[in-house]
Structure formats: structure tokens, C-alpha cells
Automatic annotation (TrEMBL):
Stretches assigned to the SIS domain: 136-272
One MF term in the entry's GO annotations: carbohydrate derivative binding
Name of protein: HTH rpiR-type domain-containing protein
Pfam family, one: HTH_6
InterPro entries: Homeodomain-like_sf, HTH_RpiR, RpiR-like, RpiR-like_SIS, SIS_dom, SIS_dom_sf, WH-like_DNA-bd_sf
Native organism: Ciceribacter selenitireducens ATCC BAA-1503
């Protein structure tokens, strides 16, 4: 903790955020969800910008900071600025410069999304915990069948992983909900579920996760925030933060994690 009682490290901050999130009232929970999904903005944003992003008044965001143990937003911001000193990717400034210079041309848009993707990939090494990645590979590699679900924005990732695992002769089944067909009955003891979902979390994905968790079947999750509801089900969570441009988020880091996980699982099964 800091002198005023706030978290003294990013890890302590994440633990505190996870601890208080479930008990917060609606407005403050909006703050928690926004901060969890946009930790990369804390160091370079004003309290007004963070409050606007969370959809609350600045006074509510200040109250949220105090609940976390900080004296106010400035102290919370200092934690992030100090933690990333020398290596903080000020992508907001760079993307704003590209927008100003390119005026929205296709070439400028390409540069903007390349920059956003590059920053997302750099952040992946910080957001994915090595021990969690090892546990995820162990669980998936030892499963009789890997069941994969990822809908809406997550569907390209889920379908790619199903394809990659099939090519490596790893038993995998894609749950796509096409035609409203459900394959819950196909998930049996000895299998594992790989769930991919980002805020706002897919209802169908969460329902399957809840059902599988009741059966005691292990769950690996690719998700976006430390307060993701998937963590309530003891999922082995791999966190990904995608930098957005113009409210559009690519899947650069998520797909990188997907191919890493697929190849690691395929390699582990060959070695066993």
C-alpha cells in the first residue's frame, strides 16, 4: 500500500479492483469495468476523460478512486506513470498525430490500425501471466476433447483455434450456436472448455460456462478484464487488452495469443 493506503503496485491494484468490484453500486461498477478494460489509458488521461469513458460524473470517478484506497485520481495515475516509466507506449499521442496528418485516408487508417495492433501486441506480454498460460496449456493438452466457444467479435478467434487444433490432430469441437443448435450434451468428464468473450460478454457463452462449471469441467478463458465474470467460475483466465481506434478494436493481440495457445497445446500433446 502507499502512504495513503492505496495499492503500491499494479498487481496490488488489480487484486484490489477484483476484490471490490462485485459489491459496488451501478455507477461505481461502471468505473471498475472501464478501468479494468482500459488500464493503459490511466497514465495519459484526465479524470474527466476517464469519467466520460465510464459514463459517469467526475465526482463519481473520484469516489471510485477513493474506494480503491487512493486520495484521488492523481495518486492512482501516479502509480501507473511510475510503473511504466521509460516504456509507456503513448499511443494516444501517436494516433492523434496520424489522424491530424492523414485526414482519414485509407493509407492513414491502415497506419492507425497497424499502430494500434502493434501496441496491443506489446501489451500482451504484460497482461498474460506466464503461470496462467502454463496452466492453460496443461489443462487443454490433457483434455479428451477441447470444446471452444466464442461468439460475435470472438467468433473469428474461436473458429481459427478449432481449425488450427484440428490440423494438429488435437480433438476439438467448435460451439457456434448456428441454427440455435446447442451441443452442451457433448461436453463430458475429461473434456475442457475454452471460452472466448469480451465486454459486453456474450450471454450464450456465459450460460455455457456456468453449466460446465457446475459439472466440475475445467475452463480456460480468453477475456479482457481482471473483473471479467468468467473469473467467478474459477476459469484459468488469460487477459488480453486490445487498443482501439475510433471505437473499433482489432483482434491483433487476441489472435496472437490464440496461435500461441494452439501451437503450445499441439506440441504438448505430441510430447506426451
Amino acid at each position: 500500500m502507499t502512504e495513503t493506503g492505496g495499492p503500491a503496485s499494479i498487481k496490488a491494484f488489480e487484486e484490489r479492483l477484483l476484490e471490490v468490484s462485485e459489491s459496488l453500486p451501478k455507477r461505481l461498477r461502471q468505473c471498475a469495468d472501464y478501468v479494468a478494460a482500459n488500464k493503459d489509458r490511466i497514465a495519459v488521461s484526465t479524470v474527466a476523460e476517464m469519467a466520460e469513458g465510464a459514463g459517469v460524473q467526475p465526482s463519481a470517478f473520484m469516489r471510485f478512486c477513493q474506494i480503491l484506497g487512493f486520495s484521488g485520481f492523481s495518486e492512482m495515475q501516479k502509480l501507473f506513470r511510475d510503473s511504466f516509466v521509460g516504456g509507456w507506449p503513448d499511443y494516444s499521442t501517436r494516433l492523434q498525430h496520424i489522424r491530424d496528418m492523414g485526414e482519414g485516408s485509407p493509407t492513414a487508417l491502415l497506419a492507425e490500425f497497424v499502430e494500434a495492433g502493434r501496441t496491443s501486441l506489446e501489451g500482451l506480454l504484460k497482461s498474460v501471466e506466464p503461470d496462467m498460460l502454463e496452466r492453460a496449456v496443461d489443462v487443454l493438452a490433457s483434455a479428451g476433447m477441447i470444446h471452444i466457444i466464442g461468439l460475435r467479435r470472438s467468433f473469428p478467434v474461436a473458429s481459427y483455434m478449432a481449425y488450427a487444433l484440428e490440423k494438429m490432430n488435437v480433438p476439438a469441437m467448435l460451439h457456434s450456436a448456428v441454427g440455435k443448435l446447442e451441443n452442451h450434451h457433448a461436453i463430458r468428464p475429461g473434456d475442457a472448455l475454452l471460452a472466448i468473450t469480451f465486454s459486453p460478454y456474450s450471454t450464450e457463452t456465459m450460460e455455457l460456462v456456468e453449466e460446465v462449471a457446475k459439472k466440475g469441467i475445467p475452463i480456460v478463458a480468453i477475456t479482457d478484464t481482471i473483473v471479467s465474470p468468467l473469473r467467478r467460475f474459477d476459469a484459468i483466465a488469460l487477459s488480453v487488452s486490445e487498443v482501439d481506434f475510433g471505437a473499433f478494436r482489432s483482434l491483433s493481440a487476441t489472435l496472437c495469443l490464440a496461435i500461441t495457445l494452439s501451437v503450445a497445446v499441439g506440441t504438448a500433446r505430441q510430447e506426451s
